[in-house]
Amino acid sequence: MDELDAGYRLELTRSIMNLLMDWGLSPRDIVNVLEIKGVSVRHIERYRRTTPFPEDPALDEKIEHLVGISEGLRTAYPHSRQAGKNWLQKPQPRLGRRAPLAVIVNEGLNGIKSVRAELDCAFAWDQVNKGFPAK
Fold first, then answer.
1. Which of 12, 39, 83, 124 could form a disulfide with 117 if both were Cys (CB 3.0 to 4.6 A apart)?
2. Is the pTM higher than 0.70?
């Protein structure tokens, strides 16, 4: 990884860490969500400050969906970040009456995708229609 890529990766890491903390996730929750191999709760603060996330396709996919959730919240609640954070904490009928944050923390990638699908109709449409030929 060259210096430019390393700088971008560190900035991305800091942004995702700040996002997850802003949503109210604890370091333990963040470890559960990101599932970075070999990282314990006591090491998670490094990612907020000095260490970029490792390059890992599974982690990158989670990051992509977390960014999609963040963008969906901004679209759904353009005038209030707090309203978006409230939505994440309130049980949602189409998520089995569970709070989106609980789904994100407890259900891995599938949970993250489920929450994104609730917020991002374009993502949900693409997922539902995979495998169907265009007319």
1. 124
2. yes
